[in-house]
Amino acid sequence: MRNIIMAWRNLWRKPWRTIITGGSVFFGVLLSAFMTSMQFGSYEAMIDNVVKFYSGYMQIFTEEYHENKTINNTFEMNDSIRRIVENEKEVTHFTPRLEYFALTSSDKITKGAMIIGVDPASENLVTNLEKWVDEGSYLSAGDDGVLVAIDLAKYLKIGIGDTLVLYGQGYHGVMAAGLYPVKGILKFPSPELNKQFVYMELNTCQEFFSAPNRLTSLVMMVEDHYHLTAAMRHLKMEIKSPYMVMSWSELQPELVSMIEADRAGGLVMKTILYMIITFGIFGTILMMISERKRELGVMIAIGMQRIRLGSVLFLETLMMGILGVLAGIVASIPLAYYFFINPIPLTGDAAKTMIDMGIEPYMYFSMHPDVFYVQAIIVFIITLIIALFPIYKSFTLRLTKALRA
Amino acid sequence: MNVIEIKDLVKIYNSSEVQVKAVNGITINFEEGEFTAVVGPSGSGKTTFLNMLGGLDRPTSGSVKIGGTNVWDLSSRKLIDFRMNNIGFVFQSYNLIPVLTAGENVEFIMHLQGKPKKEREQRTRELLESVGIGDRIKSRPAKLSGGQQQRVAVARALASKPEFILADEPTANLDSTATSGLLELMAEMNRKFKTTFIFATHDQRVMDKARRIVTIEDGKILKDERFER
Lengths: 405, 229
Fold this sequence. Notes:
The complex is a heterodimer of chains A (405) and B (229). Chain A has 405 residues and is an alpha+beta fold. Chain A has 2 domains: 2-50 and 256-404, no CATH class; 70-215, Cathepsin D, subunit A, domain 1 (Beta Barrel), CATH 2.40.70. Chain A contains 16 helices and 14 strands. In chain A, strands 3-4-9-6-8-7 form a 6-stranded mixed beta barrel, surrounded by 4 helices. With 229 residues, chain B is α/β, with parallel strands linked by helices. Helix content of chain B is 36%, strand content 29%. The model of chain B has no long low-confidence stretch (mean pLDDT 89). In chain B, the strands form 2 sheets. In chain B, strands 6-7-8-3-9-10 form a 6-stranded mixed beta sheet, sandwiched between helices. A 4-stranded antiparallel beta sheet of chain B has the order 2-1-4-5, with helices on one face. The chains are: A alpha+beta (405), B alpha/beta (229). Chains A and B meet through helix 1, helix 12 and helix 16 of A and helix 2 and helix 3 of B.
């Protein structure tokens, strides 16, 4: 107790020094938490973009479909798979799909497109597809109309009420052909999606490809990507050959690489920040020991064991660190929350790049607890390591030299 | 009865080019209750001698026995405990712990000794009253004058009930009034508690009070005189 009281009083014998050192810890935590919140926010936006537009967080399909994405490698939904998915508590929604390429034609123009058969109600829960209907109306159960992506519609020069000709290869080489009225025009934020997607009601699509009851995939959602690991662990144990389950990160390795590259850049920035904090605290500790050399010598001379002296100095540094870390956390939460609620709008090239990627042009922030406590723990560990230095000094202090200091 | 027995004490400092013999074969004993001044010009080796005597600086050779224990045979940890229980220190610059009050400075050493709270508080009060600043028990060192701080330092040195007190130039930073007051106080403590006092000093007023004066020059004892006072 006496050690703690001494350490606390020592802390305030030079208040400005303590405030400045605590301040460097405070700003370290604040800036690193702010940076991390921004980083995590943009990753969440990117992942959401991929996951919520199309792929979902996880998909179940056959191993053969994974190897060779043809309509012949589709599967029939069975009770066993349905039960596994329905019983998985992390899965919030799921939807069946049948998707394959076919040629789309209007009067004189033909273009290849991705035909996606969906259950309108459950698809809407997973990808919120209805939100992207720019003209016309959304699909309903048993609908025989189609939704065409805007750029494809423009290319084919078709609009609402026009007929779209679909022509391709169906299940086991059967010829697939049909005429479908355009029920709606879809406008996605992503130009890539706008060029090639045609949505149909699932039964209509199965009929078109002569693949009744067959699916290419079962798309699943979880609350957010922080719940994905647990869901994947459970499902990988349950889903057995010939089926398999894959997460968005396995389905979209290029997005994972992009995030990893960005994360590495962020790590460099944060390392620089942590180094500044480290030298800031270390400099103060060096100065503090140098100023108090004689006092420390006197304490050992009159009978204080070096380990006890070291622990008082350790406590001083630790208290300074704790004060800075707590203040940093307290300040960073409302700051990040403000930008979480009010994302920073981007302009110019940055905005254009994001629009091209299909993401709304905003700088998003995350409020995930990891953002805050991980930064606090890192800065606290830095402080702990620096706090070992005074212990080392208390053991190596030369008494006669210290008393003459 | 000898409290301290010193035999053939030598301290050699090795600088880059030359060897300096700061203490050159001193043999001397100190008895219980002595009031001794170790005097000599600057660089004569008196502070080095006192440091070795107090277990602060390891001699190159020779022995320092305090109450029969050769202090330089003790481990570093045991030596710190030995100093705490047997030797009191009064330094030239008072060297009180600035964040502790006068009372806490005196109590500090008893706290290290593991004395019970009640005993610590009672002895602290008694000691501060006996050095004449009982009313400043709650003052921090920065609020005390030089003379008052040195009185607290004397009380702190006495707190552990040591065999002897080493005082290195204790009056060097004090004015004449504070010096005579402090000397009276230390003489009274010496009489009252039979504590042995050994001073390293240049100060004639200290020498005038001392009952034994040991003169050191070039690391050797030049004179060892006793006086009836």
